[in-house]
Amino acid sequence: MSFIVRQISRTAEGREIVRPSRFDKAELSIGRDPSCDIHLPDLAVTLQHALVREGANGTIEIAATAGLPFDVDGRQTERADVDPAKGANIRIGGHMLSVSHGEGEDAGAVILSIERVGALSDASEAKDEQKVFSLAAAMPSKRRMAWTLALIVVALGLLWPITAFYANQDAKAGEARPTAFHGDELWSPGKLSIAHAGLENNCKACHVQPGVVVADDACTACHTNVHDHADPRRLAAAPARPGALGQAGRAIATAFNRPEGRCADCHIEHEGRTAMPVTPQKFCADCHTDLSKRLTDTKLLDASDFGTPQGHPQFRPLIATRAGETPTVQRLSLDARPLEDNGLKFPHALHLSTSNGVARMATTVGARYGFGKSLVCADCHVPDAGGARFQPVSMEKNCQMCHDLAFDKVGPTYRTLRHGDPAQVVAELRAFYRSGGPARPFGLDGMRRRPGDFGATRPPSRAASADAAIRAVFSEGGACYDCHRITRTGPDDFHIVPVRLPDRYMMKGWFDHKAHATESCESCHAAKTSESASDVLLPKIASCQQCHGGEDAHKAVPSSCAMCHDYHQGDVAPHAVRAGWVRGEVLDSPRRRAADAMKGTGS
Amino acid sequence: MASRGATGRIAGPAGARHEGFLRYAGYRWLKIALIVSFVAILIYGFHNPQPRPNGGSWYGYTLGTIGALLILWLTMLGVRKRAMTSGSWSLKAWTSAHVYLGLSLVIIATLHTGFQFGWNIHTLAYVLMMLVILSGLYGIGAYASLPRALSDNRGEMTQMQMLESLRTLDRQLHDAAQPLDHRFAEMVRLSLDEDPFAGSFMTRLTGRYPRCGTRAAQAAIREVTGDRPALGGDPLEKVDMLLGRKEAALSRIRQHLRLKALLEVWLYVHVPLTFALLAALTAHIVAVFFYWG
Asked: How much is the average pLDDT of A157-166?
């Protein structure tokens, strides 16, 4: 049998060079050894790799000699029979042997065409310079990474929240949404205030419709009893016309579907888990600056900023100018030096002196009533439960320890006249004389009588009879007269002008005494020099302005309107005071303490 | 250098010194970016929104709008760089503006946040933006320092010349190994069959190839030849010598790959994160208008 071996190589241009050799042998050796019939200079081929020999029925047999397999038509084997008429491709190492049968003058011979098909090394293979030398060879493509990341962000940051919004069925009137993380919470720019913490995971409770601002309906769904600041028509007429910039801002806001005057304009949310922020001053000043020029019939005085001159009117406390059964009460500016008539005669200076009889009296009874060497404000003015104001001053609690109304002693017990009831006083004194008691009642010139001094009391100088005693007690120098104004309409018809001590002067603004505990009383109230009860002892605005300025003032206490005034005014302290807000930070408040306590127990 | 000087004289004073995108037009865009940042900070200082600075104040919206438009424009460099032109809107001018205005975005966007951060889409957009800017900063540093190292390492060779020298060594190795028996041939093939460009992202960045086939082949051969006298004519000696040369060629290529990787790696952060940022920015804006306050 003849084998024709065609060694094929290629020039650089790709042209084939065929070097045929003919073997008239029954068996050919294949290997890397140069002595082999078919020499394959290929390190993947062993020195003696395989044998090709004549098989039965015109086939040829190929068998590995070193136990290393080869491929026949892609199948790995160590032995194969090949029909040259059908042909086959045998791969050994990097070389391909194509088997075919000869035609024409080569008829009857088996042709083995041999060509190197594998590069001799990896580096010798064709390389795309741009790619292999670049990091791109070791990385996924930037385009793929970009798309992947962008799609992840869109899915998490856009599709999930929107789906969560439309899936939310629990938004009606702030119902609780099941406790879980909902996709739209990813959009929340900050925690809700303490008051709204329950709505934290229920965006739709306030953001009812996509693309529509938080409307007042969403607020009033829960806040059912909030009242308006004023008549809506007057409210609409009150704001100052904005300047060019302001108008541009309004135009933009309108273009973006943000109407003016919503609850959310003032009540700003998503500012963190604190009390709700205080309404900025500008929301008040927008209307109240030069309000009188726009609402010409308003009784309100213009106000723009507490700290600036003319920025806030002088205080106008509610003052009783005439005492009586129906006293005359007026709001009067402190600049007008108003005189108060509350029905009582009470010189503060006399009682606060450190050297007069009052002081000596205080020393005497001090141990029993907790006085010092002289009286101080706090001996009579006791803070009320909230600390903002004071408990009412009363005869029984605050005067009687010195100004007692004792007129008789039966055994160890003193008999006293009934305070607040002149007819009863008359009746008591008449009964005293009728019962034939001691010749004279004592001490009803009372002002300088000291409790416990009963035995030392000198006999009354003027009252020799019941009539005289009654007259004396209601007259100058008498126990009633020195503190009260008395009218007489008949022989025994004495009347006391009613005393009404105000518990609050500033009805439109809020003043909290507790917040000013670091100050002395005298630093604001000139009580020590006040000789008459008609002096209004309130400080003027200038006194406050020593520490308080407007919202942006560089004073010890920058104070926006909300520190003293509430938009939705009620009987309680303004929201800012209740929440303990000062310029963006909660200092101390019941709510804050409650929140802290909750945090403490939660952790 | 001499030829550069000569070119400078011919081209006139303007061409006397190479002007990169950083110092383009006497740092024009650096100055503009500084002015923009300074003005933004100044207004922020005087602006006093209640209860605290916020992306939702008028100034917050203004900064946000400027920032978003700036991000879109900065992204357009990817489109713009594919078309080279000259003049004041040359690619160099554009790149210069891209770098400096991109850096001013740190100020603009940070002020836009009002320093309010949280686990939400808004802060995600901010963080992605900062990562893009940081990677860009790295890129500037890399472009400023690495090309010299790259050129030093290459030693006047082109990439293809480096590859060609490797191929030549492979051919010589292949030829020298022909007489070796199968066991040694397999050792040599360890080196020949190794892809010099294989290796993960980290391999490229560190330049460490602990499983180098060439080194393994040389070690295996030296284990055999180590205690033999070098008589010359031993094909193993020649293979050993060739493997040593190949290792030197490889280490040069690997250093080249490492420097190129360091030069390119920032783009694999900069570009994909830019698109993630665009997505987050879209979500941020949609969120604001969807849950319109």
From this structure: 94
